[in-house]
Predict the structure.
Amino acid sequence: MHLCIFNPEHDLCMAKGRAHYVPPRSAVDFARRDAGLMQALYPEATCCSVYDVGDVLSHHSPLSTIVAWGWNAVVKHELLKRGAPECLLPSDEELATIRELQHRTTVLPLQPDCREVHSAEEMEALLGEREHWVMKAPWSGAGRGLRWVHGRLTPIDSDWLKKTVAAQRCVVAEPRREVVADVALEYMNGTFFGYSYFKTGSGVYKENVRWTDGQIEAAFPLRQARERIEPWLNANVWPRYHGPLGVDLMVCADGSVHVAEMNVRHTMGMVAHERIRVSNEL
């Protein structure tokens, strides 16, 4: 049996960085309710949340493979606890590599306007150069771990920055941009998988737009972005990691394209891409 684990709580687990972590009930309910999303990517597999693995294992034939939405220490711990064979799970060393790649500082070479910040004083200096920034926690995603700052740091901003640096080594500061579209480059095992075009609000993912790769490439200037990003991935990521990965991009009003973040896991863009592809083939 091929088993797919839908664990949308992955980004929260990455931020915590430990095996013993209980995600909020809303994340658990989402994982259980929508595990079928993985079926778009793995139509022959049995898909479930990690919390339902015990029931699946007791009613099916032995496992041959296990794929997770995103691999982290929590999902490995929960799978082992529920009887999954350790030989089908990534090693602790592989999990540490994935977590380090997910740290926002990894993609700073692709973000020349972004800065690694370690103190309120460093952030204030940046605000002296440019008025509007977004501070991002290094291990965060889906709109979490972001703070918009304007002109100066408030006491709440400074406190958030200090706590984030203590827990995650730094904060990444990104200039505010006039973003007109959010798109992503999706990869699977080192190979380009396709584009995705999605909507956000205040940095929070909302939904994917049902456009084909051809429509997306015709609408946005993505070729140069790929030519810049893919050699970097070949040199810095694929020698260390084998699996799904998405690079989110911001298309701005002036036509420029900027790297927003890298997700070392499956993405909703991959799910949407496969659904669009299959529907167009029918």
